[in-house]
Amino acid sequence: MAADIHRIAYMSGLQSQAIPPARVAPRVPWYVYAAAILLVGWAFVLLIAWLSLERFDALFWRAMVPVTLELAIGCGLLLRRRWGWLLGVATAVLFIVDGLHSIIFVRGEYVVLDALVHRLVPAGVILAALLPGRARRAFLDE
Question: Structural domain boundaries of the chain?
Fold first, then answer.
């Protein structure tokens, strides 16, 4: 019986050396989840508003591209996927470029307000949530 206990202790010592410890994924900060919920909620508000118009022309489909991106980013962040982080940062940069392009080059009554509400504010929310070090490490495993 004493030999069995010694052999079990010896085997457990070998196993702890042979199997590397499991890596624990870093925790995603709470503000990433808050931004993801805001993005999904804002996308659903826009989707419901556009669907209530019951006009499915080219303007509708052009407006659905950013809504689809916001939904995809929100879902990717809620599911803790790396593609959600990458898509979020890339889309935020494109939203900033498109918003600034609209403000600078497009003439109209509500162009600045439209660019702020539909492009620059979502881009700011995305970047504020994804660029801090803790959020970046949680998604990119740095």
Answer: 29-140
Residue 122's nearest CA partner among 53, 84, 74, 77 is 74
Spatial distance between the Cα atoms of 23 and 7, rounded to a whole number of angstroms: 28
Q: How far is CA 104 from CA 13, 59, 81, 107, 114, in A?
A: 68, 21, 35, 8, 13
Q: Is the pTM of this model over 0.85?
A: no
What is the pLDDT, as a whole number, of residue 142?
53
How far apart CA 3 and CA 13 sit, in angstroms, is 15
How far apart, in whole angstroms, are the C-alpha atoms of residue 69 and residue 84?
A: 10
| Residue among 77, 74, 57 nearest 66 (CA) | 74
